[in-house]
Amino acid sequence: MAESVPSLELLADETRAERESLTRHADTVDAKAGVILGFASALAALEAGRGGVAASTGSALATLAALVASAVLWPRPFPAWDVRRVSEEYLAADPRFTERLLFENAVTMVEKIQRELQVKVGRLRGGIALLALAAIAFLTDTMI
What we know:
The protein has 144 residues and is mainly alpha-helical.
């Protein structure tokens, strides 16, 4: 029989809240990547019809920004339980053991979401930087 862990319910609640918060943050990052993708695509289209080195540079940078933003949006597996397997394997188990197992799995899922989110945020920053450089090239070409 599993030992009683008084703080397990509190920790499980906090872990659930953190997972939900990370999921919302990931959705926000995706939305921002969509904005970057839209602006980068529009800027690349504007630059495509112009000549000159700055226009070519701006178009290339905008295209790279769009590709990086697309990488942020690329679907990745979301960590989740195999509910059927868990229910079949642990339905008859001691509830405290099952609760502990589910908590430990939830912690692992949160860690995985955090790592994925760090990668997405890094790519988003890269896309923003590339878009900013493309905009500078566009403005430089416009002023010339």
